[in-house]
Amino acid sequence: MDTQTSPDITSRDRAQSWFYSDEVKDHFFHPRNFMTDDMVAAYRDASMGMVGSPACGDMMKVWIVVDPNTTQITDLKWQTFGCASAIASTSMMSAIVTENGGMTLDRARQLRPQDIMERLGGLPNRKIHCSVLGDKALRAAINDFYRRTNQHEKIEIEHGRIIDPVLKVTDKDIEEAVLDGAITLEAVQAKTKVGTGDPSCIPEVEQLIRFYREKFFGADQA
């Protein structure tokens, strides 16, 4: 199939189509560092992070083994309930983190979805949010390592700045909504209810939506 002219996936109603790079397809069909069920027991002492929920759709678990002397991640395994983009993104994340002897914990914390997407050769815009799961689960696993080793001062909790003080909607909530494909105020409100509690925050919400659209999708698409 010529992936330059024919989509890899087309929805049943043919309203949406997605093209995947060869790198994405390679990591989907041949995922690196995937945790099989028979391996779980061997990693019971490894640090583990989890994000998402199977009840909501995508869920990600990441296990890491860390050299306490160098703080390098010498091994990483993962499991997910997710789509092709989530699987490929996490596979690539695992390869990046463990290559060349393994990233240090500090360097791994700096890994972002954009780094993963660049190595994959890009993802369809509607699938960019799938690349977020892996690095979030990785950061949760790093926190678990510091928790297990009683280095609580190094645990980093991802907080968000409150935008809607009535409904307690944060900038992180808005970022997640945009990553999930909500690129208009109405779409973000449908996901978060932001601005329905305090309409005075709507101008700031619209500014954040524009910022995150450009950050994750490039040129403004609204």
What's a quick, concise take on this entry?
The protein has 222 residues and is of the alpha+beta class.
How would you sum up this structure, described in words?
With 222 residues, the chain is an alpha+beta fold. The chain folds into 2 domains: 9-154, Alpha-Beta Complex (Sufe protein. Chain: A), CATH 3.90.1010.10; 162-217, Arc Repressor Mutant, subunit A. It has 8 helices and 7 strands. The strands form 3 sheets. A 3-stranded antiparallel sheet has the order 3-4-5. β3 and β4 form a beta hairpin. α2 crosses α5.
Layout of helices and strands:
Elements: E1 9-10, E2 17-18, H1 22-29, E3 47-52, E4 59-66, E5 73-81, H2 84-98, H3 105-109, H4 113-120, H5 132-148, E6 162-164, E7 169-170, H6 171-179, H7 185-192, H8 202-217
Antiparallel strand pairs: 1-2, 3-4, 4-5, 6-7
Helix pairs in contact: 1-2, 2-4, 2-5, 6-7, 6-8
